[in-house]
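Researcher: Please translate sequence to structure tokens.
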Amino acid sequence: MTPIDLRSDTVTKPSDQMRRAMASAEVGDDERDGDPTTLRLERRVAERLGKERALFFPSGVMANQAAVNLHTRPGTEIILDQDAHIIQWEMAGAAALSGAQIRPVAPAGPVATAEDMRRVVRPKAPHMTRPSLVCVENTHNGAGGTIVPLSEMRAIRAFATDLGVPVHLDGARLWNASVASGVPLEDFAANADTVMVAFSKGLGAPIGAAVATSAAAAEELWSIRKRFGGAMRQSGIIAAGALFGLENNVARLAEDHANARAFAEIVDGAGGATIVPPDTNNVMVDLPDGRPAGSVVKACAEQGVLLSAWSASRIRAVTHMDVSAEQVTRAAEVLAKALVSV
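Model: Translation complete:
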């Protein structure tokens, strides 16, 4: 039996149509003359996000870290949510690659707000570390795919302006935020100087991310990408997959969101577990005290359902295009039973 894999929306396989688009992609040397398919993707991303230019990257982590390098200086600090991807899942890249330290913000609610950020700002003094960047993650992965509302994005932008620093938006799943909220992508993106979007999360592409920004910033970002090892040659082969996903798979994200809500309804309360109500396609399941998430995940895997143990007491399930509504229902039923019996 093929497992039902809800560990992440990165586990999707390219569809036959996407593979054909990749196989037939027009290519060139991206570093020398520009790869035509990659250039088309970059123009399309810039248009969708309302920016002057976009650059294609092999991964979201490289794209985020290139943006951090663009905006910061060694010895300064980045203000962002304490559970943000840039802190938790990028191997201290800001410190290792850019010499910038993190100023983590403990949110009063699900995600850090402008007011939360204001509370941690150091007073201006010669012996104090100065901020150089504010980062926002939307949707917020660690908070359960939570959408940072447009009003809060604007408030964070105003806070950063008061500080005199730029904003970077980690929008790996910004597509989800836009589809679920109805807010156009460019409205979210207008509140950041650089915006990272990923194609391998939700859109079904096997690889790739992009950073959209101003034309001037993109020139510098191009050099940073090269320095980080992100210069590519016939990149159109992978850019074609990303372009196919962008043109065909954004609107269907609503199906993933509906499946996540259905999953949550079945699991909520089973064995005393509670659900973080999903805004998008990410479902966080919090177990009662003492219930080991790893044991529950293992029991589900034995029944052909793959989930992630997010922490010692939290399980994550992520819906995506490679799981049907019926499979999601079965997976939720398996988890519900495991929560009672393990």
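Researcher: Any highlights?
Model: The mean pLDDT is 97.
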